[in-house]
Structure formats: C-alpha cells, structure tokens
Fold this sequence. Notes:
The structure is a homodimer. By secondary structure, the first copy, chain A, is of the alpha/beta class. The first copy, chain A, folds into 3 domains: 1-45, Single alpha-helices involved in coiled-coils or other helix-helix interfaces (Up-down Bundle); 47-260, 3-Layer(aba) Sandwich (Rossmann fold), CATH 3.40.50.300; 287-322. In chain A, 53% of the residues lie in helices and 11% in strands. Chain A is built from 14 helices and 7 strands. Chain A has helices at 3-11, 15-26, 30-42, 62-75, 89-92, 104-108, 123-139, 155-160, 183-188, 202-218, 243-259, 262-285, 290-304, 310-321; strands at residues 50-55, 80-85, 112-114, 144-149, 165-170, 191-194, 231-234. In chain A, strands 3-2-4-1-5-6-7 form a 7-stranded parallel beta sheet, sandwiched between helices. In chain A, strand 6, helix 10 and strand 7 form a beta-alpha-beta unit. In chain A, helix 1 crosses helix 2, helix 1 (3-11) packs across helix 3 and helix 13 runs antiparallel to helix 14 (310-321). The longest helix of chain A is centred in the last third of the chain and has 24 residues, at 262-285. The first copy, chain A, starts with a helix and ends with a helix. Chains A, B: It is an enzyme of class 3 (hydrolase).
Amino acid sequence: MDIEDLAQRVSAGERRALARAITLVESGRADHRAQAADLLAALPQDKQALRIGLSGTPGVGKSTFIESFGMMLIRKGLRVAVLAVDPSSSRSGGSILGDKTRMDLLSREKNAFIRPSPSQTHLGGVARRTREAVRLCEAAGFDVVLIETVGVGQSETVVAEMSDLFLLLLAPAGGDELQGVKRGIMEMADIILINKADGDLKPAATRTCADYAGALRLLRKRPQDPEGYPCAMTVSALEESGLETAWEAMEKLTAWRREHDFWDRTRATQARYWFTEDVKQRLLARLQEPEAKAALEALSDEVAAGEADPSVAAQAFVDRLGG
Amino acid sequence: MDIEDLAQRVSAGERRALARAITLVESGRADHRAQAADLLAALPQDKQALRIGLSGTPGVGKSTFIESFGMMLIRKGLRVAVLAVDPSSSRSGGSILGDKTRMDLLSREKNAFIRPSPSQTHLGGVARRTREAVRLCEAAGFDVVLIETVGVGQSETVVAEMSDLFLLLLAPAGGDELQGVKRGIMEMADIILINKADGDLKPAATRTCADYAGALRLLRKRPQDPEGYPCAMTVSALEESGLETAWEAMEKLTAWRREHDFWDRTRATQARYWFTEDVKQRLLARLQEPEAKAALEALSDEVAAGEADPSVAAQAFVDRLGG
Lengths: 323, 323
C-alpha cells in the first residue's frame, strides 16, 4: 500500500480514500498498525474540525437527530462526518450506525461521511481507532465530526475525551423524574437536548427541559463555560425544529472557548491523555505476541496447578520480558 | 530484612510477623516488591483458609456482622482474619476497618487478625496487595479469611475473584423494592444475608428475604451450586441470631464444592486471573520508572503542543522502551 499516496488522497478529501484509511487504522494487524502510524504522521496537522460528542440511550431518537442536524449543517455548506463509539456493537450489532439506512438522506450526501463503530469488544481499542478516524476526517477537510455513543459502560467518558463539545440527547420524561441520568454524565454535558418536542410530547419535553436546566444550575461552575452554560434546550429532530438554536448555542460556546484559550488547552490535555492511554495499550499488546503469549500460558498453567504463586510468577515473567 | 526468618515466623502463626509481612506486600517500593516476592515464594503452599468475600453498602451493619460472626467462629475454635478492599479509603478514610474499635471484641481476640484496606486509590493495586495478604493469612494458619468491601466501583468483582464464597449483606427494604442491587452483584452472591432481622425491622427483613429468594430463583442455575443455592436468609448481627444457620449454609456449600471439584477448579481459575492481572500491572508499572517517566513526559509535551500525533508518539515510545 502506498501510504504517501493514501495520505495525499485523504488530505484532498476523497471519501473512498478516507474509508480505506479508516479501515487501515481499525486493523489490529502489526503491519497495518505500522502503516497506520506512517499514515497519521504523513497527514497535515493544521486542519481542525469541530468535534461534537453525542450521547443518548436507544430510543431517544439519536439517528433521527443526526440525520436532521447533519442535513442542516450540510445546507449551511459544511462537510459532516459521523463516527460511532460502541464497544458493544460486535456483540449485539446494536450500533445505530450499523444501519446507515436510518440516516437515509445524510448517507447519500456527498459532503457527508458516515462510519459505524469498529467492531471490537474492548473499549480501549475502539477508542484509539475512533480517535484516529477523527484525525483522518479532520485531515480530509470535514468541518464537523459527530462522534456518537449509546453510552454503554465508560463510553461517554471516552467520547467526551475526544470531543470539543459534548451533547447529551434525552427524551421527554414523565413527571419530574430526571430519567436516572448519572451525575457524572450530566457533569460532562455542555448542552443537554431534549428531543421529541413535538406533538403530544411537547409539554413533557418543555417540562423535562426546565427540570434539567434547574439541575444544571446546581452543578459547580466549570472554568471552560461562559455565563449560561451548560444549558438545556428542546429540539424536535422529526419536525426539524430547535436545531438552528442548538447550533447557535454550540457556535457561541465554541467561539468563547477559542477566544479564552480553552479550545487549545482542552485539545492539548486530550492529546496527552490519548498518548498515555495509547502507550499503555501498546505495552499490553505485547502480551498478545506469539512468544509472550506462549510463555504466559505455560506460567499460567503452573500457577493454576498451585506450583507457583501468581505474584511470584508474574514478577518472573516480566523480568524475562526484559526492556 | 531477613525474609527467610519472616516467612518462618508467619508460618508459625505469629501475628506481629504477619502484620509486618502485610506491610511489606503493601509497599510500592521496588526493593520491597522484590522482597515480597521472595517472601511469598518462601511460604508453604499447602495451607488453605476458607476465603469469604463480604459486600455490603454502608449502613447495613457490616462491622457489627463481622464482629458477631467472627466471634462465633472464634468460639468454634477457628482462627479468623479480616481484610478489606476499599479503593476509596485513602480519599474518604471511609473504610469500616479503618476504625478497629467498631469490632471491639474481635480486635482483642488472640485468634483474630484485623487489617484495614491498604490506602491507595488504584483498585488494581489494592487488589494485588489484598490477595497477597490473603495468602499470608493462609500461611499463618488462619481458618477463615473474611474479605470485606463497601462495593465502590468494581470492588465486588475484585473481592469475588479472590473468594471461595461470596456473601452479600443487605438491610431490610421498605415495601417490595429490591434496593437497587445491581444484577451483576446478585449473580456473584452465593448467600444473601438480610441483616437487622430484629425488633421493629424483623417483619421487613423477612419480607425482603422472601423477595430476594424469589429473585435468586429467577437467575440461571450456575454449575458450581448444589440444589437450593444461591440462597437468601435473615440474620441479626445485633442479637447474634441466624449466624449459626448462615455458617451451616456456608459449610454445606463449601463441602459440596470440594466434593464436586469446584473448589480446586475455582481456585485455579482465580490464580490464572490474578497472574494475568499482575503481569499487566507490573508491565504498566514500568512507565513509572524514572527514565521512562521522563521520556514519557517529554513526548507528552510534544503531543500537547501538536508537534506529534498521540498514536505516532506512542508507537515511537514503546519501540524505544524495547523488550
């Protein structure tokens, strides 16, 4: 594979080259990993997209929202990429993006690019691959990269760690319940969007929005937020209402953060975080190499048979691994 | 430190030597780690205690239960050690065992040994240290090792992975609610104990017990369980009632598992698990060594400044680490 050529074609915004490049970074093969590193190193570092993380449990209308919101951005002349982080997708096949037909219009737009979650059960692996895919989309000149997650396990944290903005999409709740949204997730959100503010559900959506706005006011003020953020608002992905207002809120927040130096600082912190995570992953990946794996299994048998203490055997193994 | 001598004194059941040995395995210092490995290797491998994991949130009467249950075992002529896994203890100081005075009688018994959780925020570290402390207690001839946890984060899983039996201690619930016990934790439990079956709370305890018994019957049958297990029963740690019945249930289950080869098989599986975990921890610990740490920080600065891609820098770092 000609990596230089691929890097150039990705940078020129060719969608097929982008798809191929993502397939490369998703591969676990050692030679592919080396090629992927070369590819990433060959890409220009100067293009930045707005990375928007989007979390919402199944049933809140996430794919409809992405479709409507994405089409609105396309109409504004922006290029939109959609990626997914779903560590469960290999087991359940449950990723929304596994089914592109649910984003019928967007998937046919030449200025849109939709990519399902890499199928892998290990969140760390999905995270690294998705982050590299984000970089590829940026190099390919996309203006907005939407990173969606269904919020299984720690996946919201993973997505928030690679996003400039984090959106939480919710459905109208009955009564004044706060849908059991974990406090930690609330604290990650920059904007909470109550979807389905249409038809019969509109009053419930308005009430739910007020509840969340109240809850957000109780959270400690974060340095990266201007007055009035984080905020809650209603949208209807179905009727395509509220989307402009939501986009304005995102643009305003982004502009403020750029101006007050939080944009660069957050990206730098995130880059450090991913670098450290990546080092750990690669270090642990050594245990999967054939020789190490065989030695590990042999020692594991001794430990299971009670012939060696786990700690003592572990020390011996790591010493032997050298380095 | 004379490790041979320490190993002998631990094996002779000297409590002060045991305390000193646990302090050694809890230390993070490299020279102490090496000595700890020597110590563990020098211990006899043939003594086994009954390892009982005990989980329960604050307020269910865990320390009172340990006191009453432990004293009952002592009266039976058994030697009882109590250890804790509490990854939050260094932050909150919240470990029950941090306050030995709450187990007033037990802490004064010469056949009892109580040790609070090693103070560390990292669950992996706490887990390894606790598992090594269990081994030391076994070598010191304790018959029962109780490993308690308040169930923060993944700590129940950690404790279950080092236990022969796993107990879940609960308080009586109002109405027919199941106290929001996570399904995963229910599935780990061998015996659910509803505490505080005394005074005004007795009817509620009986009802809660029936609710859990019903819920347990809905779970899939596990191969390691004889007929009638997992089970739920009421106890009163305060009035010391139900404890004999609970102990009989534990003995019966243990005997069945020994007879049907599940005891050895579970221990072998656990030993494999801990060996693998320990290898990973030790591998990652290399990143904390001065030279690696300095190199990591320098590269991290480059990554944060946008001069290098996180993946590319990570690959370069791991290559340089060698091995």
